[in-house]
Amino acid sequence: MDANWDDLRVFLSLARKGTLTTAAKALGVSHPTVARRVRALEKKIGARLFDRLPDRFMPTAAGEGLLADAEAMEKAALSIHRRSASLGDAVSGVVRISAGEAMAALIARHLPELRRRLSQIEFEVIASHTLANLSRREADLLIREQVPELAGIVVRKLGRVAYAIYAGCDFPLRGTTPAALADLPWIGFDDDHSYMPGQRWLQERLGRRPEVRVNDWLVLHDAVRAGAGLALLPCHLGDPDPMLKRVGGVVGEVSADQWLLVHRDLRALPRVRAVMDAVVELFQRERALLEGRSQRPSTTRPA
Predict the structure, then answer these.
(1) How far apart are CA 126 and CA 130, in angstroms?
(2) What CA–CA distance (Å, rounded) separates 23 from 39?
């Protein structure tokens, strides 16, 4: 057999995605191209690689046998790509940073400063709850609240984020005791995002689900600003916002560590190293804000 790597990439994508359309989208090609490449590979191998079911393609026994070898080739190809990238010595090029929405917003607020310091670097800031694949270069750096158990990942702790209760500046507070606050409308996350920091604490405090539920920190932030209710927000989002008032101090039971993740093959790449150093310095400089110790004088105190 003389199958080339491009054909095997197409085979892998179809085996993982299950349909011509989704495989084509992942590869950035047309679905007729995927079908043609798979037929060509089957002809070279002399075996049928997929069963064509009504709703998806399923690997045959021959396909399953090829899958492990193709995945090993993919792993080697990705390793070569990462290692070759780290051989360059120029502090220039693209660096992709993936973080949750709230943390991506923090990075975005400091992009002018980061660009002045690293003017030859192009930044791609990806706001996502999902874990980007560092091995496949879906991102160069991850900022996350948990450290996943992944091989080849180097981790550095950035700091800790504090949370507090916020309301819109004009939102009426009849009282600030826990009972009075519990009687007001609240905004939180939906059931699919109940793992977000503070959501369990909030439901235990209220004894019910929040009246308004979202799936994004920035939507939550905007809903509080609009006066839809009270919410638990990261202090680095709530404290600098003149349209919000903090109700009480930092919620001691709720916090989230932030970790910087990078693949070990990329940490020595000059542009990635430079951005890592800049992000670490940024978190050190903004530590008081992140920990909720830089609040405005107008903060509302609970009774």
Answers:
(1) 10
(2) 15
Report DSSP state, residue 191: G
Alpha carbon distance 60, 53 (integer Å): 11
User: By C-alpha distance, which of 25, 27, 59 is closest to 42?
Assistant: 59
Cβ-contact 27, 18 below 8 angstroms: no
To the question of pTM greater than 0.85 for the whole model, the response is no
Identify any residues that bridge with 144 across adjacent strands, giving them in sequence order. Answer: 259
Question: Does position 87 have pLDDT exceeding 60, yes or no?
Answer: no
Residue 206: its pLDDT value, please?
93
126 in Cβ contact with 254 (< 8 Å):
no
Task: Kindly state the helix (H) or strand (E) to which residue 187 belongs, with its residue range.
Answer: strand 187-189
- The contacts of residue 19 (CB under 8 Å, 6+ apart) are 55, 56, 57
Of 152, 159, 106, the C-alpha closest to 133 is: 152
Q: Quick one: what percent of the chain has pLDDT higher than 90?
A: 55
Using CA atoms, how far apart are residues 112 and 291, in angstroms rounded to an integer? Answer: 23
Alpha helices by DSSP H, listed for 18-110, are 20-27, 31-45, 61-85, 101-109
- Only one residue has tokens 């393609």, namely 57
Q: What is the pLDDT of residues 246-265, one digit of tens each?
A: 999 999 999 999 999 998 88
Helix (H, G, I), strand (E, B) or coil at 127: strand
User: Are 275 and 98 a contacting pair, CB within 8 Å?
Assistant: no
List pLDDT tens digits, range 155-197. 999 999 999 999 999 999 988 899 999 999 999 999 999 999 9
Residue 189: its H or E element: strand 187-189
pLDDT tens across 93-149, in order? 989 999 999 999 999 999 999 999 999 999 999 998 877 666 566 789 999 998 877
The C-alpha atoms of residue 143 and residue 259 are separated, in whole angstroms, by 5
Q: Are 67 and 59 in contact (CB under 8 A)?
A: yes
- Quote the CA–CA distance of 214 and 182 in Å, as a whole number: 19
